[in-house]
Write a structure and sequence with these properties.
The complex is a heterodimer of chains A (about 260) and B (about 325).
Chain A: H1 2-18, H2 20-44, E1 50-51, E2 54-55, H3 56-74, H4 80-87, H5 90-95, H6 100-130, H7 143-166, H8 175-188, H9 200-207, H10 216-224, H11 231-258
Antiparallel strand pairs in A: 1-2
Helix pairs in contact in A: 1-6, 2-3, 3-6, 3-7, 3-10, 4-7, 7-10, 7-11
Chain B: E1 2-15, H1 20-25, E2 28-42, E3 47-51, H2 58-65, E4 73-78, H3 88-91, E5 94-98, H4 110-120, H5 125-138, H6 154-166, E6 172-176, H7 184-201, E7 204-208, H8 212-218, E8 221-226, E9 229-235, H9 236-243, E10 246-253, H10 259-264, E11 272-273, E12 276-282, H11 286-293, E13 299-306, H12 309-319
Parallel strand pairs in B: 3-7, 3-8, 5-6, 6-7
Antiparallel strand pairs in B: 1-2, 1-4, 8-9, 10-12, 10-13, 11-12
The chains are: A mainly alpha (about 260), B alpha/beta (about 325).
Chain lengths: ~260, ~325
């Protein structure tokens, strides 16, 4: 099994190298995105040393780390599946003795490996360039928990993205829902600001949705370390992984039965 | 090996009424029968030609047999498996080549697709090496397997598609119009290859094609399908002898024929452009027609042709 996944991984990387320009531009977009948020926050902090309980250093550290988390969690190949279903190319996967889930996960990992590699280099360069003051990792005992939160974040993002792609079994209009998803992610996941600067009721409501667990939760662990009330967010994020996994699995099954591939 | 009993497949599609409000809020659907209660059996080592017009249900049948589609009703067993359960053990024993679809990694050389398939189908290294070498030689692909698939011509691509689908020695091979759009040379290579491969490996092959020469050269048994039902299942020879009822007389005249002769033999205008004359007659009337016609015409050349498979098929399309 490992050899299969490894081969898919290698092939996906090789495919990436064929489209250098798109990839470089995608990374440029991410860097610009980061620079924008960085300047936004530094100008906000010009008048005051602490805002919403965050010092400038903590906020910049949060923004930098959340950028890395974003690269890990939200990069992926699952969006391709929608096009494959619409064009009928998905038939190739159906004929192969490997489940669509394993196949996509291997591709997803390749994608993440490449994106994370680049994100690390970019963030390194940005740190050199702007020389911001940063806060160090709160406590090394947090690391395993950050890792766990990241894995769960990847799970949530993977299964949501799969579900969004499986919509293609029923309609050709697959991009509108994905677009809305990305708007929600940019507003609610914490990639622009930490969720806890919002009013308390709103924060609590948001923490019940899957979005904050994509970026905010792992990034917050980095800057604040272990808190006594960590069990509940972990439980909620695991529940979301489970729920979305079953949703994706059943929607896939239903889609397979429903779809005709008529003339495709 | 393949057993199909009372297979029916319905496709649901929306009927657009033209009323935007109604179409959006109260869509009307209709069920269209792509396959209507068909049954057949296929034994190991058979090479079946699946023929029929576009939309007859050929590809749908192959997709159900290979597990891509779910049937609406019916019992299907392929290699003792239920295809749409998509068990690994089943998928490892079948191969599917689609002439209209690319199955390889588009932006990488074909060898990358071969390697990927090797791992996915868990083909042992020695078997893989042997198969790749053999297939590359048979299909004359050595020169372009290291080229990106997207840069290959259609004929080259079909050949590497075949290799990718055969690396795991499938027991059943589905070929859906493997020669579509190919020039005669590429077509020839593929047809010869299929023939040779089937003879050597005794694989079961199910082939669809709109080129009757392909079918005639390859298939011993024909399944003729039209509007979702099987209208003929049997050998090619029997099909021709049953349905080929006419012969065509072709004459190259030296002087034009008279109006009377034209009338007498009810020659249509499209069949007569001096000096060519075509006359289609029932087999049993051939000698009678000839003995009456020949004294009335002066000609340089005469030939009597059997109906081609195409003609027979055309007649069958029209009859049913």
């Amino acid at each position: 099994m490992f050899k299969k996944l490894w081969r898919i991984f290698v092939v996906t990387v090789a495919q990436y190298l064929n489209y250098r320009l798109s990839f470089v531009l995608w990374r440029v977009r991410n860097v610009m995105n980061f620079v924008l948020i960085y300047f936004l926050w530094t100008s906000v902090y010009q008048t005051s040393g602490t805002l919403f309980g965050y010092s400038k250093e903590t906020m910049v550290t949060y923004i930098l780390f959340s950028n890395l988390v974003y690269a890990i969690v939200l990069s992926g190949r699952t969006a391709d599946l929608a096009g494959d279903i619409l064009s009928g190319a998905i038939i190739n996967n159906l004929l192969k003795p490997i489940s669509i889930f394993s196949y996509t996960i291997a591709r997803e990992l390749a994608d993440k490996a490449i994106n994370v590699g680049f994100a690390v280099v970019e963030i390194g360069l940005l740190i050199l360039l702007f020389q911001p003051k940063l806060v160090p990792l709160h406590d090394s005992a947090t690391l395993p928990f950050i890792l766990l939160a990241l894995i769960s974040a990847c799970g949530i993002s993977f299964f949501i993205s799969l579900v969004l792609s499986f919509i293609a079994f029923w309609t050709e209009e697959v991009w509108a829902p994905r677009f809305i998803f990305f708007i929600l992610v940019s507003m609610l996941s914490g990639s622009f600001f930490p969720i806890d600067i919002l009013p308390k009721p709103l924060e609590i409501a948001l923490l019940l949705t899957p979005f904050p667990y994509l970026v905010y939760f792992p990034a917050k662990l980095f800057i604040s370390g272990l808190q006594p009330d960590l069990i509940l967010p972990f439980v909620i994020s695991f529940v979301w992984v489970g729920v979305l996994y079953f949703a994706a699995k059943n929607i896939w099954k239903a889609g397979m039965k429903n779809f005709s591939f008529y003339g495709r | 090996m393949i057993s199909v009993k009372k297979l029916t497949k319905l496709y649901r599609s929306q009927v657009k009424t033209g009323n935007i409000y109604k179409d959006f809020f109260h869509p009307v659907y209709k069920n269209q029968k792509a396959l209507d209660d068909i049954s057949f059996e296929i034994e190991q080592g058979e090479l079946i030609g699946f023929i029929g017009p576009n939309g007859a249900g050929k590809t749908t049948t192959m997709k159900i047999l290979s597990g891509i589609l779910y049937p609406s009703h019916g019992e299907i067993q392929v290699l003792k498996f239920t295809p749409w359960e998509k068990k690994s053990a089943f998928l490892k024993q079948i191969g599917f080549v689609m002439g209209q679809k690319n199955q390889l990694l588009w932006d990488l050389p074909a060898t990358d697709s071969f390697r990927l398939n090797k791992e996915i189908y868990e083909i042992p290294e020695n078997v893989y090496k042997k198969n790749v070498d053999e297939l590359i030689t048979l299909l004359e692909c050595k020169d372009f397997i290291h080229q990106q698939v997207k840069t290959l011509s259609l004929g080259q691509r079909m050949r590497v598609e075949l290799i990718a689908s055969l690396l795991h020695n499938p027991k059943i091979l589905f070929l859906d119009e493997p020669t579509i759009g190919l020039d005669i040379f590429a077509q020839q290579i593929i047809v010869n290859f299929i023939k040779q491969y089937q003879e050597e490996k005794k694989a079961t092959i199910i082939l669809t094609s709109h080129y009757m020469q392909d079918v005639q050269r390859l298939a011993k048994r024909i399944l003729f399908i039209n509007k979702g039902t099987i209208i003929y299942d049997g050998t090619l020879e029997k099909l021709l002898s049953t349905y080929s009822t006419d012969k065509t007389i072709e004459l190259t005249l030296s002087t034009p024929i008279s109006k009377e002769v034209q009338k007498q033999f009810s020659i249509q205008t499209e069949d007569y452009t001096f000096p060519k004359l075509r006359l289609c007659v029932k087999k049993e009337q051939l000698s009678d027609v000839l003995s009456r016609l020949l004294p009335n015409v002066e000609f340089n050349d005469l030939s009597i042709e059997e109906e081609s498979l195409e003609d027979v098929i055309k007649k069958m399309y029209q009859e049913k």
